[in-house]
Amino acid sequence: xxxxxxxxxxxxxxxxxxxxxxxxxxxxxxxxxxxxxxxxxxxxxxxxxxxxxxxxxxxxxxxxxxxxxxxxxxxxxxxxxxxxxxxxxxxxxxxxxxxxx
Length: 101
Description:
Layout: E1 21-27, E2 32-36, E3 41-56, E4 59-64, E5 68-72, E6 77-94
């Protein structure tokens, strides 16, 4: 019998904040999420597979597998999957939970 126990909280302290939300999404090829915001949040998008274009205001960024983008949730955002579609996570962190340096 294996007596090893997983860590009770392997993520940074901010992940234990009750208002942190993590979503796993999948977009079919060329599908898109329309413009939206996440006011009062910091946003982390991590591409698990495929590729997508992340538009933040007037700037577009091409992201592929294992790429990570972070940005303030007050920026108007849209996502469009590439030819292979995309699977990705979105983590929303309340601004109040983000440690300030």
